Hints:
201 residues, six-stranded parallel β-sheet, two-stranded antiparallel ribbon, 5 helices, 8 strands, 17% strand, globular
Amino acid sequence: MIEDGPGERSPGPFCFEGVVMADVLKVAVLIGSTRAGSINQSLAGALAGLARGRIEFDLLPMRALPLYDGDLEVSPPDALWDFKARIEAADGVLFVSPEHNRSVTALMKNAIDWASRPAGRNSWQGKRAAVCGGSPGTRGADMSQMHLRQIVVALGVETMPQPEAYLHLGEGAFTAEGFADPATQRRQARFIEAFDAWLRR
């Protein structure tokens, strides 16, 4: 079952207004769907709002990467070097993962694969990360998140174990201020607080 789908959306850093702390962390954000109106694009935006003043979200342009092929490593695409540099410069990584057929999306897996290459240039090594995701289904992309954790641990990524964030997000889940449901807003605020503390350990 495909719960979210690919599409086009312009990536870039989220901009925040208000007071900014001197030690704001920068987090590279990978979203497994670029579809216009994507639930997970909206989820990332709502989390960015909760993180303002503590964490700056840098949304990485995953659609710029071609389908991974080892032959392309002879002359890697120009987009790869900027992509890898932004991961390496980040204080941490946030994976926002929809679920396609009980796993991560092709877009997400392709980006993870490219950032681990070429040989000896694994940009994931030693990174700390959090994993979250949402879907219209009640399971909230749980299989995708479990599979994603298995993938990145092999690349040297340490993922935050708790809290987990499997979000059931239907129509009307978001407002201009963030999450429409106050309980969801509170839970995700705790998720961001835990992620901030995890990165600063």
